[in-house]
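Me: I hope this is not a bother. Any chance you could explain this protein sequence and its structure tokens? It all follows right here:
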Amino acid sequence: MTATSDTLSALAWLVEAGADEAIGEAPVNRLVAKAPPRIDPSPKSAAQISTLPQGEGNKRPSVTPTSVLNPLASDNDHIGRAMEIAAGCQSLAELKAALKSFEGCSLKKSAINTVFADGNPDARILFIGEAPGFEEDKTGLPFVGKAGKLLDKMLTAIGLDRTTAYIINVLPWRPPENRNPEMTEVAKCIPFMRRHIELHAPDLIVLLGAVAVRHVLGRSEGIMQTRGKWLEYHVAGRMIPVMPTLHPAYLLRQPAHKKLAWRDLLQVDDRIKQFHLLEPRAANG
């Protein structure tokens, strides 16, 4: 692994861990006044200046762009900017507008639409998938293709639909040809996803697939090791119950595993009924 990929891996890990600012490696005493700039006691005479090539006296010293000295600078700036913009959004509407205007992620350049969310933003149950596919990119809505139709059936099986659940993805833009996104591309989207969860403030989260588990919870285990087990996610001072399960697209390829997803959904159904999560938020405080 190269030094560059090591740096990118470390940066993406910090973003997923919730880092939202950068500090120096050594403490800085900001109470000490800075030393005044040093003045050359023997300035050049007019005769010396006149010997410079024409225009040389007014030319500013050349500065090599930071992006040339450090190829990661541009990516780092975009990640930091994504954190700043996401943190400043105070509503889902502001976050959606911010995502649509954000130009720091290359995935957006090849996408047709920004896929923000679907379902009921007032619902207390949040489903999180991986990334938009072809149909989602075309319509601007998550889970509308074949996997989306299966997700609708999964929702119906436990008494839910898109009026009683809220659905988002880790990535708001489709990677070209559905390729795996690069680490820096994901790092620029994570701040928006985290803020999306905070602003929605769900009472229960269902993670669809290993990618969602990795980027929401920071866990690297395979989905078969995490599915069916209640985990937790911290949101605004609360610990929210999280159920990882199999992604509908995976179930289309491996229909024999639908029984596993059904077991997970039964646990979700029990939790919904236990805490009356289909009732309006106000009814439960």
Summary: The chain has a mean pLDDT of 84. DSSP finds 13 helices and six strands in the chain. The first strand starts at residue 118 and ends at 119. Residues 132 and 148 are 10 Å apart (CA to CA).
